[in-house]
Design brief:
Blueprint: H1 20-27, H2 38-44, H3 53-65, E1 100-109, E2 120-124, E3 180-184, E4 190-196, E5 207-219, E6 222-235, H4 238-244, E7 277-280, E8 289-297
């Protein structure tokens, strides 16, 4: 796995997508650029007992010690907001503000229970106001908030339909990259991302998208070869999401929130369906959250996320499902 010094930039000064060659050239200097907003908060999480190195080591040790074979993790739709940027980095925050979230993710072979080393795990999700980078002109799905940070580059199309489009890939409206990243797994199948707790938008419960790539390798052009063996989504317990609603900037999100039980895509099967295990101070969630999960996948399969949702109860607070 490449060293941190060779990660692509994760700061606001380079938040617009550059050519991959330019990104790699900037990567070595990324550490010298000051983090802003939640980026600084996430960086400071190393000193927070709830999200510090000790807590992360404990989470990894517990997961690595488990000898129980898991059922195959549920495949779910990719959704309309995936962009194949392949930004190799641990910290995906850039200039987004919100509660620091550390995601400890592990991939194992569902048949052998062995960790998938030297594979790639990718994540993307919306910010606290329910907006995805690359789609800021879409707002947060219902037009009720989520002010875009600025106009998209000239010549880019206007946003897709409200609510996330109900499936099918949408055309990006800008070249922003926050809250998107990919990493190669270590010898135990782990990656760790520093991000912020996602917000919500019309039609969906709070979630994070993921893909697991196997059979390829990291090159100067990104992740090359192989296949996407798993496409899924991660979810958060309702109690944790509820705890964020009175904290800035989440408190400013006026979109009607869909709960986990109301979500049309979450399959309602706990860890197998993507439900994260969460660790945080229940009196002070603003200090940070650790979310962890092990994904059991078929490394030889191809699951690009073009199929039907994993299946769950019909939504009650929104018209069409989005992603």
């Amino acid at each position: 796995m490449p060293s941190d010094a060779h990660e692509e930039p994760d700061n606001a000064l380079v938040s617009r997508l550059l050519s991959r060659r330019r990104m790699l050239a900037l990567g070595g200097a990324a550490g010298a650029v000051a983090l802003t907003g939640a980026g600084a908060a996430a960086h400071a999480a190393d000193r927070n007992p709830a999200t510090g190195a000790g807590a992360l080591d404990a989470v990894k040790a517990a997961a690595a010690a488990s000898t129980t074979c898991m059922r195959l993790t549920t495949e779910q739709i990719e959704g309309p907001y995936y962009i194949d940027y392949e930004l190799f980095r641990k910290n995906v925050v850039e200039d987004r503000t919100g509660i620091p979230l550390i995601l400890v993710l592990r991939a194992v072979d569902a048949a052998t229970c062995k960790p998938l080393r030297d594979s790639a795990i990718e994540i993307w999700h919306c910010d606290a106001s329910g907006v995805y980078s690359g789609y800021t002109q879409t707002g947060n799905g219902g037009g009720g908030g989520g002010t875009p940070p600025g106009p998209p580059p000239s010549g880019t199309p206007s946003g897709p339909p409200p609510g996330g489009g109900g499936g099918g890939h949408q055309t990006p409206t800008d070249d922003l990259t926050w809250l998107r990243g990919i990493q190669m797994t270590d010898h135990q199948g782990f990656v760790t991302f520093r991000t912020v707790f996602p917000g919500w938008y019309t039609g969906r419960a709070v979630h994070v998208h993921t893909k697991v790539h196997t059979g390829g390798s990291r090159t100067s052009d990104g992740y090359t070869g192989g296949r996407t063996c798993h496409t899924g989504q991660f979810y958060f317990a309702e109690s944790a999401v509820q705890a964020t609603t009175g904290i800035a900037p989440y408190a400013a999100n006026t979109v009607t929130r869909v709960t986990l039980d109301q979500d049309s895509i979450y399959p309602g099967t706990g860890t197998q369906g993507g439900l994260l295990q969460l660790a945080y101070d229940h009196r002070h969630i603003a200090r940070g959250v650790v979310g962890h999960i092990t994904m059991a996948v078929d490394p030889a399969a191809t699951n690009d996320g073009d199929g039907a949702p994993g299946g769950g109860p019909a939504p009650t607070a929104s018209p069409s499902p989005s992603a």
